[in-house]
Amino acid sequence: MTLPNHFAPEPIRFAYWVPNVSGGLVISKIEQRTSWDADYNRKLAQIAEAAGFDYALTQIRFTAGYGAEFQHESVAFSHALLAVTTKLKVIAALLPGPWNPTIAAKQIATISQLTNGRIAINVVSGWFSGEFRAIGEPWLDHDERYRRSEEFIRSLRGIWTQDDFTFRGDFYRYTNYTLKPKPADPQPEIFQGGSSRAARDMAARVSDWYFTNGNTPEGIRAQVDDIQAKASANGHSVKVGVNAFVIARDTEEEARAVLQEILDNADPDAVKAFGHEVKNAGKASPEGEGNWAKSSFEDLVQYNDGFKTNLIGTPDQIAERIVALKDAGVDLALLAFLHFQEDVAYFGAHIIPKVRALEAARERRAEAA
Ligand SMILES: Cc1cc2nc3c(=O)[nH]c(=O)nc-3n(C[C@H](O)[C@H](O)[C@H](O)COP(=O)(O)O)c2cc1C
Fold first, then answer.
1. What is the mean pLDDT of residues 339-363?
2. Among candidates 125, 17, 16, 23, which has minimal Cα distance to 64?
3. Which tens digits make up the pLDDT trace of 85-121?
4. Which listed residue, 5, 44, 79, 293, has the most CB atoms within 10 A of its CB?
5. DSSP character at residue 339
6. What is the CATH number of domain 13-368?
7. Which residue spans adopt a coiled-coil conformation according to this UniProt entry (predicted)?
8. Ligand 1 centroid – CA 218 distance (Å)
């Protein structure tokens, strides 16, 4: 038999969203036992590590808005999670503008040294103009934000890998700069978030990982084909992570009922205001294919379109859909939950083993073929 185009022998990786901002990962008044505080998050990181998660992703927000009333800072918080785990890699979100590459390179190199190379970064390019205004940062046009992010990434890589690093960009400049100590091995992996053409082009040139919003396997495959074609033309290789909100129950009806309850309790004003903000942020993206370009009201109740990926059903259905994502070229599933500690433990006990069994069966079929 023939296997799907993108089927990769490596096991799919799992990451979870660190709830380091308040309100959980849905804009809904449904009861959530998730907390944004440090103790809850330290315990969650240990649960996730034991459950078989490879990565945790922190978020960066500088101001409140649409639910995130309190927000812990991403780099400091990532280090706190690394301090209580031994294998988990933590991805710290960095926003060029508030961060410059000099400070970011130094901070991350030190954390890398302190944690045997378990720190990674997620370069985000900004969607919240009100946040930039509040902190006195210029709000650049969409594609200019990506031009700056690309220079930010090139600067980080140069500082981390070269002595006497010299760089002449429009946003950043270095002259014979040598960082000591450099990060520990392995080098910090560079993730990025965004789905627009500018985001995909940047991924195909400089990022190790492309993170995108929730989507169907067909929607993901179109992005993967585009990125991988461009990356191979550039002699670059990039992996893909997709967001999903997981609701696992004994029956599909029960899982769908939970989704309905989340939607019924959505805060309509907050969801509409968030929708206005993100669509406005993507407007300058000339081709109109940004992260939220096609999001409906229901999609926006989860910040990154996580219901669209449809990991909502029984453990068997969820495992099969994860393998379908892998067939579409996904290397990592980035997951959010309603009650993080309980749901992450459940996912590790009941869903990851099913995914591994399906992958092993695929592998055997591939060998036989
Ligand atoms: C997985 C993921 C994580 C993100 N995390 C953050 C974050 O912590 N802070 C932030 O301001 N933006 C975050 N973003 C938003 C992106 O940086 C970007 O602004 C947004 O996806 C719009 O990009 P686009 O219009 O190019 O598609 C994230 C996006 C994704 C996909």
1. 97
2. 23
3. 999 999 999 999 999 999 999 999 999 999 999 999 9
4. 44
5. S
6. 3.20.20.30
7. none
8. 21
In the numeric block, the tokens 């859909």 are attached to 321
For the stretch 261-314, pLDDT in tens is 999 999 999 999 899 888 877 765 767 778 888 899 999 999 999 999 999 999
Task: Determine which residue's CA is closest to atom 5 belonging to ligand 1.
Answer: 59
pTM of structure: 0.96
Let me know: does 336 contact 16? Beta carbons within 8 Å. Answer: yes
Q: Which two tokens stand for residue 319?
A: 């495992």
Ligand 1 neighbourhood includes 192 CB (under 6 angstroms): no
C-beta of 60 in contact with ligand 1 (< 6 A): yes
Q: Is the pLDDT of residue 147 over 80?
A: yes
Residue range 210-234: mean pLDDT, rounded: 96
59 lines ligand 1 (CB under 6 A): yes
Give the atom of ligand 1 at the shortest distance from the alpha carbon of 281: 25
Query: pLDDT tens, 29-60?
Result: 999 999 999 999 999 999 999 999 999 999 99
Residue 127 CB less than 6 A away from ligand 1: yes
What ligand 1 atom has the least distance to the C-alpha of 195?
27
Q: Where are the domains of the chain?
A: 13-368
Q: Using alpha carbons only, give the angle 207, 355, 254 rounded to the nearest 5 degrees.
A: 110
Residue corresponding to tokens 């009941």: 350
Cα(60) to centroid(ligand 1), Å: 10
Report CA(214)–ligand 1 centroid distance (Å): 12
